[in-house]
Amino acid sequence: xxxxxxxxxxxxxxxxxxxxxxxxxxxxxxxxxxxxxxxxxxxxxxxxxxxxxxxxxxxxxxxxxxxxxxxxxxxxxxxxxxxxxxxxxxxxxxxxxxxxxxxxxxxxxxxxxxxxxxxxxxxxxxxxxxxxxxxxxxxxxxxxxxxxxxxxxxxxxxxxxxxxxxxxxxxxxxxxxxxxxxxxxxxxxxxxxxxxxxxxxxxxxxxxxxxxxxxxxxxxxxxxxxxxxxxxxxxxxxxxxxxxxxxxxxxxxxxxxxxxxxxxxxxxxxxxxxxxxxxxxxxxxxxxxxxxxxxxxxxxxxxxxxxxxxx
Length: 311
Description:
This protein is 47% helix and 15% strand. The protein has 13 helices and eight strands. An eight-stranded mixed beta sheet has the order 1-2-4-3-5-6-7-8, with helices on both faces. α7 packs antiparallel against α8 and α7 crosses α9 (224-233). The longest helix is centred in the middle third of the chain and has 24 residues, at 181-204.
C-alpha cells in the first residue's frame, strides 16, 4: 500500500511539472520572409546566421553604432535614431542573435558571440573608420567589451542604464544553470516574466502598443527560449567591472534614470569612479526606460556629446 501511495505521489509531482511545461510552449511562429518584411530594415547573412539591421543617415557622417539591451530588439532606439540622423550622424542599429527577427543559431550565447556578430556586421557593411558606440543596458556591457578589444576603432562611448554585474545577488540565475530544471524554469516562468518586465517598461514610458506586441512576437519564434537560457548560462551576464575599469582614454558618457529598478545606483557610482574621461547625466524622473521616458532631454545630451565630447 505504501509503495502504491509513493507511486501516486511521484505521478502527481511529475504531472505538476510536465503539464505546465507542455502548456507553456509558445514558439509556433515561423521566421520567414513575410515576418521579416513586416519589420522593415535590412538583413545580412553573417557566419552565425541572418542579422536584422538598419543603416541610416548621411553616408559621410560620423558613424554611431547603437547596441540594444538583453531582450528588446533594435526598436529600443526608435526615439533616438531621428535625432541622431538630423544631427548629421550615420546610424547603425541591429538586433542581437536570438532576438527580434534576427536568426536564433544553435550556439553559445556568450560574450564571444555578441562580439563576433558586431565585428562581422561592421566588416560586411565596410564600416571601418572611427566609431561612436552607444550601449543600452546589456548593450553597454557589449559596447564596453568592444571598446576594450578595439580601442583604435572607438572614438567615443556612451553607456545608458549600463549593466555592470547583472547576475549578482540573483539566485534564480544559479537555478537556471541546473540541467533540466533550467529548461523547465525558463519556459514556465522566465519568458513570461520577461514579457511582463518589458511590458511594464513600455507602459511606464507611454510607448505605443506595438512595442509590447513586437516583444511578444519575438518570444513566439523558435529559439528565443533556448537563446535566453544559453545567455544566462554563459559568461554574458557575469561581472563586467574589470572590462569597464580597464577601458582606454576616449571620452565616455554615462546616462541613467534615478528611478531605475534594474541598475542599482551603486553600480553607476562604481562606473563614475572606475572610468577615466567620463561625463555623467542623471534623469531624476526616469527609470530603466529612460531612452523613451526622457527621450528629448536624452537626445539633446547624446547628440551634443557625440559632436563635441561634452554632454
